[in-house]
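thread: overnight batch results

M.L. [08:02]
morning all. the overnight job finished for the chain we discussed friday. pasting input first so we're all looking at the same thing
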Amino acid sequence: MNDPRVPRNSYAIYRAVNRIFEGISAPPQRDYHEVIRYMNTELPRFEQANSSYLVLGSYRDAYGRHLREFANCLNMPTNAESVVLGDTLDLDTAVIPEFDIKINLLGEAADYIAGVYEKESGGESPELGVVRALFVNKTFVFPRDYTGLSRDSLETREDVVQAALAIYYADCDQIESEQRVAEKKKREIASLLTAAQEEGIDMSERELTDDIKQRQSDIDEPPAEYSWVHLSFYKRFEVIDQCYPWTTVAELRERVDEMPGPERPQWETEFDIGLFRDS
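M.L. [08:03]
and the structure it wrote out:
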């Protein structure tokens, strides 16, 4: 019978387990078993991949769909493996919080961590704080509609799109007719575009209109708002070139290329459907 194999990331797992039980002198036996069960269930797929990713964010409703679509894009190279924290095994512990076990073990075992954020409420904030404290060097954040900590001017095309979306989704006086509201917003967006062009931003009215329509088709919501704490975290990752904002789902998919790891498969860009059509 062969001796048990030592995992390639055994030192990382040791650090994670130490943090999980830190300060607890006599945890219940059930908690030990749950930690081991989680390790045996979730960590082997990280062992088998050349590049592994832990994906964090909001796991419900449309936010969850965007998160899992991002994770699926990370999985496209055959030697990559991504795991969404919210889709992993549920645990039944007596003392140790379930979240402590998951974030410590998966965060240590993964080669890289990706956080996709679209709102400031819910469990995203604690996750963001933990990865900022423990795993900052291998974490990349993807906040929707983020334009900087305190940007008051138009500097990029993204700034123009965000400002236009704010106008488009702004609440208006209910006394005004829909036609008058639409005309007012159209004038404001046109004025915004003029100001952007004066700042040297090359963007046409058609391009801006298409961007607004695409966003409405993907995510029919006003621009995301974040607390000062969230913005400070994003700024920190921005300073170290590990923050990649996005506006539409298509942009989020493209942002996958910003993650380190194996290259995407060639067929994504070289596949020619014409080869399979009847002549």
